[in-house]
Amino acid sequence: MAGYRIDAQDLSYTRLNQLLRAAVAAGEKEIEIEHVLGQRFIADGLKGEVTITIHGVAGGDLGMFMSGPTCIVHGNAEHAPGNTMDAGMIVIHGSAGDAVAHSMRGGKIFVRDDIGYRGGIHMKEYNTKRPILVVGGSSRAFLGEYMAGGLIIVLGLGGKPAVEERGIGSGIHGGEIYLRGEVPSYLLGVGATEKPAGDDERERIAPYLREFAGLFGMDAGALLSEEYVRIAPASSRPFANTYTWE
């Protein structure tokens, strides 16, 4: 059981976050929030080693600017969990909305089921900071749009392809995307290239597949034995030819 509990029923997102911040400031390391129903900005900007367990539907921008904590959601999350997150981890035992990991610059996000449009848009990395997004289900269009760094893995579990809409990696100029199974070339966005993942690349994603399987009680061996496609930038300036130079 968590050491500190917050009942979010009938609380505004402002009051909920005031209580959460006060608990973290008081030194609580295990916080459980019950009856969450769309309250926004949970754990935004929080720092330190604290685990926040959320029961219900987390509202938009969960963990935005977060640097260190772990957020575990037993339910779904709305748009942009992990927006510009710096460090820490978000685990979602359900699905998430659009723009998951928007501009994320560090830490890890694991989503058991599906995500919406523009997952991983403008993810970036710097020196040793490399953001990770792993999705168990499928993603909608424009996965990894304008991606500047980091790693995205989409597994397509549950009978659906990892991605079946256009614009994968549109404008990608850094980082890499791995999709389980085959990817028709017409789904790729401008500036993206694809090839089967080789042994070195499979070894690179293996730790995150094991971590995903462990978090959600799945068979890591089955995931590791699958075939993956790697999508990466064709160049560091995918739209160079669209500008007029004098």
Report on the structure:
- With 246 residues, this protein is an alpha/beta fold.
- The chain has a domain at 95-239: Glutamate synthase, alpha subunit, C-terminal domain (Pectate Lyase C-like, 3 Solenoid).
- The protein is 15% helix and 27% strand.
- The chain has an eleven-stranded mixed β-sheet, with helices on both faces.
- The longest helix is centred in the C-terminal third of the chain and has 18 residues, at 199-216.
- The model has no long low-confidence stretch (mean pLDDT 95).
- CATH classification, class level of the domain at 95-239: Mainly Beta
- N- to C-terminal separation? 65 Å
The biggest sheet amounts to: 11 strands, mixed
Number of strands: 11
What structural category characterises the helix and strand content?
alpha/beta
> What are the secondary-structure elements, in order, as H or E?
EHEEEEEEEEEHHE
* Rg calculated over all Cα atoms: 18 Å
CATH fold call of the domain at 95-239: Pectate Lyase C-like
Which architecture of the domain at 95-239 does the CATH hierarchy give at level 2? 3 Solenoid
Task: Give a quick precis of the structure.
With 246 residues, the protein is α/β, with parallel strands linked by helices.
Please outline the helices and strands:
Blueprint lengths: L3 E4 L5 H13 L4 E8 L13 E7 L9 E8 L12 E6 L15 E4 L20 E4 L12 E7 L19 E7 L11 E5 L2 H18 L3 H5 L3 E6 L13
Parallel strand pairs: 1-2, 2-3, 3-4, 4-5, 5-6, 6-7, 7-8, 8-9
Antiparallel strand pairs: 9-11, 10-11
